[in-house]
Design a protein that fits this description.
58 residues, alpha+beta, Hypothetical Protein Tm841, Chain: A,domain 3, 3-stranded mixed beta sheet, 41% strand, elongated
Length: 58
């Protein structure tokens, strides 16, 4: 099947986001799992302790 590419973004939730990153790596055939901070403008909308997951397949 197609390999998955994930992006895990977080707002002041680094530990929880890292746990999600590890779980995705273990459960799926991942081409990559990227982890980053949510951009400040988006964080105004989503608020603190937010985790956003985006993905696509090859």
């Amino acid at each position: 099947g197609d390999r998955l590419h994930f992006l895990v973004e977080h707002t002041v939730s680094a530990d929880e986001a890292e746990k999600l990153k590890q779980m995705l790596s273990e459960e799926f055939d991942c081409a990559e799992v990227l982890l980053c901070d949510t951009q400040p403008v988006a964080a105004l909308v989503t608020g603190p302790k937010n985790i956003t997951l985006s993905f696509y397949s090859d």
